[in-house]
Amino acid sequence: QGVSVQPGTGMVVPGQMHKRLKLLPGSVILLRPPPLVGMKELAQRLEDVGPEAAGMALGQMDPHLTAGALALMQPEAAAAVFSMARPAAAAKVLEQMKGDDAAPMLSHTNDAALGLVLSHIEPEVATEKLQDFFSRDPRLCMQSIENSETWRRAVQTMAKDTPACDKVAMLRTLQPHQAARLLAQSDSTAAAFSFMRLAARDDKFAGQAMAELGKMSDRIVHLVSRNMEQDLHRTFLLQQVACQVS
């Protein structure tokens, strides 16, 4: 894409040789688009960066390309990436997958993660997809459909302007780790009030859910910190290059 340059601006142009250019006022630099990445290469990159980073980046990638890449990964690794993604982003990827490609991954995906993803797909479409994914296992197909309906109701309960006591009653039908995942994906205000009421009603359950939320938070903080360190390292290297070229 084109980048407008301010008068007298200097910049380093990357390539086989670094060159520092002094540009005239109003100059426009046209940068080459990044090279295209194939499904096989993307699958390897997703494995290299780890499930947390790959999952968080899922929403920034082309759903069709990502679906193909997940199908090429080991089922356990693909499920880990899929489970770490935001449900809305994972839903777009899942809609692009075919039965034989998705079934191995979904068989390693926990019910909470899959249920939240399916809640972002129209009910009729979700049912058709599950029938396609689990065509060879009718029992698992029916179980997945029932699970998706349960999670759809849970998401709707957290989203609706319903009393906190109704939200608490619904949360207590889940396992603590499931409740934590649902709270993490819900509106922050609704989640906070619901959690306070939950703690008043069942402090043991709330404590277990809080522990699960803490684990999720630690993973995110660690990931953000690691990325910040990498950014600082890249900035330092660029400064060193600039000093050498000047």
UniProtKB/TrEMBL annotation:
Where is the Magnesium transporter MgtE intracellular domain positioned along the sequence?
41-128
Q: Pfam families recorded for this chain?
A: MgtE_N
Q: InterPro entries, alphabetically?
A: Mg_transptr_MgtE_intracell_dom, MgtE_N_sf
Q: What name goes with this protein? A: Magnesium transporter MgtE intracellular domain-containing protein
